[in-house]
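wait is this the right file?? whatever heres the structure
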């Protein structure tokens, strides 16, 4: 993807970049590693920065403030779509870029989300290629597979991405995932990693956590799908493991296991309202419009159909295994700050 007002320019003379990151097969990054985190002021970005700055040099891009930012973390209040981001990658020597800067606000317009997500990510990919960044990590989502009545029990990384078929808001995330896949093949010198975690729970403000924050969440009569969840801090661990030298490709991330939605709600201490499908859609739509719920109607298929992932690649090649059990993961929805 090319920029509208940014012409070609001669690249500045630079010393050779590392062909891979200076870490071993099961080690964490070393202090001389310089990592750029986009969306660093979001919940996951802050958690990643506070963990990663202990073992690497961290810079971040985000227009929002970063309260309680570690002193050695550089925060750049930039817009990914503007030339300041390009200038930053040109002037600094980043060994890795971790992209967490997707806009997930269900109340944002489709044009705003597409501009911020797809167009901005396309610009970032241009800069990563232009300035020879050795590593790119994209936090995608298992939602890109889409909850479908015909899904197999567990989806592998080569399964088709059908998330945009029933949920319009997922189109951007599917497109970003596909852009990263295309970048993987076009720019083999950059180790590209795509992480697809199941439903992330914790202090994050996403659909899954917002659903479990409801005192009486809606479920659909006749449906009780198996679901998977993962603790937000386990996702941060997987992001850090993705920075190891030689790691590239797509990895599904699974949490402590799977269980029916009804049992998940019971263990979370929730008493669901079981309603017919048409009533569930109408009820959620009304609650969302009245701002009495942060769980959008577009996510309703996730409480009807299965969308679970096979995580063997992450276990075997990434060395990732979740450390938080189900009780701790559910507890994090309320206790994490």
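ok assuming it is, sequence goes like this
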């Amino acid at each position: 993807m090319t920029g509208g007002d940014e012409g070609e320019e001669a690249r500045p003379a630079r010393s050779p970049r590392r062909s891979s990151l200076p870490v071993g097969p099961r080690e964490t990054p070393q202090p001389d590693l310089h990592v750029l985190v986009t969306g660093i002021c979001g919940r996951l970005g802050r958690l990643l920065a506070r963990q990663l700055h202990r073992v690497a040099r961290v810079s971040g891009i985000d227009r929002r403030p970063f309260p309680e930012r570690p002193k050695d973390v550089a925060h750049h209040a930039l817009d990914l779509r503007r030339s300041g981001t390009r200038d930053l990658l040109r002037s600094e020597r980043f060994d890795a870029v971790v992209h967490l800067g997707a806009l997930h606000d269900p109340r944002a317009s489709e044009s705003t989300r597409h501009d911020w997500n797809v167009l901005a990510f396309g610009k970032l990919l241009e800069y990563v290629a232009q300035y020879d960044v050795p590593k790119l990590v994209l936090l995608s989502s298992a939602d890109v597979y889409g909850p479908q009545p015909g899904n197999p029990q567990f989806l592998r990384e080569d399964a088709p991405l059908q998330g945009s078929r029933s949920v319009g808001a997922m189109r951007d995330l599917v497109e970003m995932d596909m852009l990263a896949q295309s970048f993987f093949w076009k720019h083999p010198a950059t180790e590209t990693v795509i992480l697809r975690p199941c439903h992330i729970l914790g202090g994050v403000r996403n659909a899954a956590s917002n659903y479990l924050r409801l005192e009486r969440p809606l479920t659909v009569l006749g449906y009780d799908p198996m679901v998977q969840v993962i603790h937000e801090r386990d996702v941060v661990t997987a992001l850090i493991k993705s920075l190891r030298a030689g790691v590239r490709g797509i990895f599904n991330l699974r949490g402590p296991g799977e269980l029916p939605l009804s049992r998940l709600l019971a263990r979370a201490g929730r008493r669901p309202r079981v309603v017919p499908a048409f009533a569930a859609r109408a009820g959620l739509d009304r609650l969302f419009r009245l701002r009495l719920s942060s769980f959008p109607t577009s996510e309703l298929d996730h409480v009807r159909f299965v969308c679970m992932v096979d995580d063997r690649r992450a276990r075997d090649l990434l060395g990732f295994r979740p450390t938080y059990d189900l009780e701790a993961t559910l507890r994090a929805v309320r206790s994490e700050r």
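The first strand starts at residue 34 and ends at 38. so i think its the right one actually
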